[in-house]
Amino acid sequence: MPTIFNRHRAMQAFMPSRTGIILNPFYLIRRGLMHAIHAEASAMRGVLLDFGGGSRPYETIFNIEKYIGLDIENSGHPTSCFPTQA
What we know:
It is built from three helices and two strands, in the order αααββ. By secondary structure, the chain is of the alpha+beta class. It has two domains: 1-42, no CATH class; 44-86, no CATH class. The termini are far apart.
């Protein structure tokens, strides 16, 4: 059960739903950002380069050929979810 809650809470950080207003102190800002990204996502084509993408929370929104996240190593964001590039 705690795992489900933690996963839901983590998702609310970047893609807040109505329950996010309780769990996320940045609810209004992140909700507006998510709506703006959704509005532009359908126009994106080809390869998308995300500067400062941190843990790449918006990657699943885009229907593109390739998503490249670029961030500095010591940015303060968790980078453990980045795939290794060959």
